[in-house]
């Protein structure tokens, strides 16, 4: 965890630990979600992981009652015949649900949060996903499906996705991108929480996407800049976006992530349709995240 000392100096300070439910669509034993869990915990958050037993990428907002496992959990992290919901033998805060991402995060909110927090979570985070979730991809992304499910449950939510990476077991040695994306995601989460409640307008969520990372490119937390963006291109005649960076039309998240340099996009979406939020809702997010937001080069 070579980024820890740098990350802790950049992390916003909050008065008390934040209660976080964490999910994804790549599965509970994938390296990204476990690294994100470790990063949030290192930032003194109280975290419960509640994610699918298997890789459920591309399942959107699918929902089904969990069932007993007919085969082993991903990466043999639990045996066939295991119950529909279960936890790691060494850490009961690491939980699987043998169903979809939306089902899994709701289990975390409704069942695990009262058990560990004594109340609803302060925030729900999903990811960070193996691969970007840009534009219309949000409609099929299970990571986005988990975040929007949380928002519909009344919990502020963020979906995180990274361009670099492949499906990898949490027991593997982490590549550079793993720790970079984990600590960036914790930084965004902490920044939003430091803005005080309510964190986001009701029925909205944040979609965060990171550019490619390698040992020589965007390998340091301090190289990244976040830009407020749109999920989709605006239709002809669409109402203006929040005015920032000299324009009333936000850049698309695809254009942000594809801009040379280490630019990450933050879009504000509507949970019920996964489309773009309006200018007033974008303005609230901008105010909350102003300390980390930047503009694309002109």
List keywords for this structure.
28% helix; 10-stranded mixed β-sheet; alpha/beta; 298 residues; 7 helices
From the helix content, strand content and strand pairing, which structural class follows? alpha/beta
Number of H/I helices: 7
The H-and-E topology, N to C, reads as HEHEEEHEHEHEEHEHE
Which regions contain 5 or more consecutive residues with pLDDT less than 50?
Answer: 1-9
Task: Specify the biggest β-sheet.
Answer: 10 strands, mixed
Terminal Cα separation, in Å? 35 Å
Structure description:
The two termini are 35 Å apart. With 298 residues, the protein is an alpha/beta fold. The longest helix has 19 residues, at 176-194. Helix 6 (253-257) links the parallel strand 8 and strand 9 (263-270). It has helices at 4-10, 31-42, 101-117, 142-152, 176-194, 253-257, 279-289, and strands at 19-23, 46-52, 85-87, 94-97, 123-130, 157-162, 204-210, 225-229, 263-270, 293-294. Helix 2 (31-42) packs across helix 5 (176-194) and helix 3 packs across helix 4 (142-152).
């Amino acid at each position: 965890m070579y980024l820890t000392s740098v990350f802790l100096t950049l992390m916003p300070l909050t008065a008390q630990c934040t209660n976080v439910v964490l999910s994804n669509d790549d599965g509970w034993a994938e390296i990204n979600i476990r690294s994100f869990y470790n990063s949030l915990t290192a930032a003194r958050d109280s975290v419960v992981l509640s994610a699918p037993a298997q890789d459920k990428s591309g399942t959107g907002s699918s929902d089904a009652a969990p069932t007993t496992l007919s085969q082993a959990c991903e990466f043999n992290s639990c045996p066939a015949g295991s119950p529909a919901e279960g936890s790691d033998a060494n850490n009961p805060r690491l939980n699987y649900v043998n169903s979809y991402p939306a089902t899994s995060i709701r289990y975390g909110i409704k069942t695990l949060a009262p058990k560990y927090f004594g109340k609803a979570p302060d925030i729900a985070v999903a990811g960070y996903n193996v691969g970007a979730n840009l534009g219309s991809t949000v409609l099929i992304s299970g990571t986005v499906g988990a975040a929007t499910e949380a928002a519909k449950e009344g919990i502020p939510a963020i979906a995180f996705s990274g361009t670099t990476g492949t499906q990898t077991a949490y027991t593997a040695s982490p590549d550079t991108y793993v720790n970079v994306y984990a600590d960036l995601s914790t930084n965004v989460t902490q920044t939003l929480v430091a803005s005080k409640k309510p964190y986001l307008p009701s029925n909205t969520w944040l979609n965060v996407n990171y550019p490619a990372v390698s040992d020589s490119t965007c390998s340091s937390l301090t190289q990244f800049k976040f830009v407020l963006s749109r999920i989709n291109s605006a239709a002809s005649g669409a109402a203006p976006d929040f005015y920032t960076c000299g324009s009333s039309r936000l850049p698309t998240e695809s254009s942000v992530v594809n801009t040379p340099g280490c630019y990450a996009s933050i879009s504000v979406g509507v949970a019920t349709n996964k489309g773009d939020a309006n200018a007033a809702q974008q303005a609230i997010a901008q105010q909350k995240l102003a300390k980390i937001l930047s503009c694309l080069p002109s």
